[in-house]
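Treating backbone geometry as a discrete language has practical consequences that deserve illustration. Part of our work consisted of pairing the sequence of a single chain with a tokenised description of its backbone. What the numbers capture is local backbone geometry rather than side-chain detail. For completeness, the protein is quoted in full, as a sequence line and a line of structure tokens:
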Amino acid sequence: MTGRFHSSIALKLTLLVLLGAGMVFALVLTYSYVSSRQIILDESKDSALNLAVGMSRKIEQEFLAVGKVSKSFAGFVETSNWDEKTLLETLRRMVVDNSEIYGMAVAFQPYAFNKNILKYEPYYYKAPDGLKFSNGDAPGQSYFQQDWFYIPVQLKTPVPSEPYFDESAGGVLLVTYSYPFFELSEDGKQLGVRGVIAADVSLGWLEKLVSSVNETKDGFCFVVTNTGTFVTHPNSDYVMKESLFSLAESHGDKRLRSIGREILGSKKGFIDVGSSLGGQDSFLAYSQILSTGWVFGAVFPKSELFSEVDQLHHKTFIVSILGIGLLVLVSVFVARSIARPLKEMAAATKKVAVGELDIELKAANRTDEVGLLAQSFTQMAQGLKERDFIRDAFGRYVTQEVVNRLLQSSDGLKLGGEIREISMMMSDIRGFTALTANMNPEHIITLLNRYLGRMVDTLIDFRGIIDEIIGDGILAFFGAPEPLEDHPERAVACALKMQEAMAEINAWNISDGLPTLEMGIAVNTGNVVVGNIGSDKRKKYGAVGPDVNFTGRMESFTVGGQVLVSQSTYDRLSDILDVKDILEIEMKGFQGKVKLYDVIGIKGKYMVALKRLEETLRVLEKPITMTYYQLSQKTVSSQGTMGTLKQVSHREAVMTCPEPMELWENVMIVPHDENGAIPEAVIYAKVISFEEAQGIHYIKAHFTSVSPKALHILEKAV
């Protein structure tokens, strides 16, 4: 019984159910885990940023308070009538009344306090044994060139100094906030800097404030100056001795250097810092202290942020394993109850019913009546498979006559082919890739379906076989699998009919507000290999050979509205072709120049003629300024060049450019108005001739695609 179970469909069903359920559980668990982490991360990011911004604002308020004291004292010095006694008393009160101020000095410019006194710098400060006074006139010392005095005098604006340890104050960490005051005219205008109010602020409060933040167990906070030097840090050895960049250098940590640049270069943020800060994988929330340019940072270890999610995920995983085990028991019972009544032939019949025709029946090896039935069943499935392939391969692109002929052939699906002379056609919308780069996807599909619908109908009318449709490009051929004696004539006539249809397609596009399209077509005749190409699982009927590649090269030299015919095709139809022009071009991979014929009509039984569009270039009284972008491999260059449209028609233009261009090069042109470039006005074009005169490059370009806005500008110009 066990052996029968292992060889039956029951085990397969059980494994499939188990696999499917396992995948579902895995997807649900993964999604739940990732989503939960993301939710916590988003919430943590908001909370951390709020913390960083709030702390930076608290610190900012402390510095602003010092600034207000200095500003108030400066206003007193500038506007009040005071004597030396009043000045010193006011200075003393400022120090006594403001606990955050360690000391304050008022320093005058040379002879600004008294015409007979060069320097005057009274200074009150808090010492361990009480308030002290210094007049700042120690011999050999001058404050005029010291940074705390010189820089605000030159900048005429308040300036905070870098933090420093004052050994005379017992190693207190201080920062000096210097506020300039001015000599005022009678009407209150500032005449010049008279001196500087210098307030020494103790940063002990800053260390207490930062260390009071305790959001996580192993996290910490710090403050760095605008040069990255640590002002506060849990490791006191770092304070005013190390910076983000010195630590990065000593540890060889390039990431820490990048982190330092990022936090000093932006106002706030939340970033992944890895283990560069604190030694464990963490996030960093930071916010700039605007008045000083310093930065407050808070480090949050990831292990603490996601600990609850990880625990929940572990419990959920255990419950899921138990659930899968229970599901296995149920699925085994259900699979056995379904598998017992099934037989091999019944299973094969169901496969055929749903279109699964790859049938292998073990019973086909038997010699009795069951074997004969299995053999007949296998042959029937193979026949259905062959007919499905032929219908899939040709039903959409060829007439029913061709499909029926292939179905009647005994080797219609045989891999391989034969050498046959056929006529090949390759068409492509000029500039389609660049034109649709920024279009709505629905509009792109509308353009393609409208265009391909008409082109495929025309090809089928002329009994053409479509080898490939790649985006906006079509490769088709005539003369296989059904031999056609007039395949060159059919190919050229079909190409001309396809060009005729473009006028109607563009009329629809204009009515829908879509850009007009122009198509180039190349026709070539030659010997190629045609037949079934691919593998047993996937085949197509196609053509390969050098002449197919040559047709593709020809197509790249076409412009919109043009049908280029190769020499081999022209030789067979020269008596009935109406040729507008003969091009002699150099083609990569071919020696010498290659002749291509610009055909605008064909006589004989098909009688197709394109309208002769004589392009009359009109010289513009006021040339149109434009920017042109060169295209490489259908990609628009990011760097544009200014030029001028001198002559224009509806399909061509002559423009002057500062640099030469290659013949047959593709460009995108954006006209300008008085406000600059017009983004909606886009013209794609191909260079068809150029010349140089007196250092100016005159480029003649044929338009391949014109947006509605650009078409309006051209119509207005001509």
Remarks:
- Residues 309 and 566 are 70 Å apart (CA to CA).
- The radius of gyration is 43 Å.
- Residues 9-79 form the longest helix (71 residues).
- The chain is about 40% helix and 30% strand.
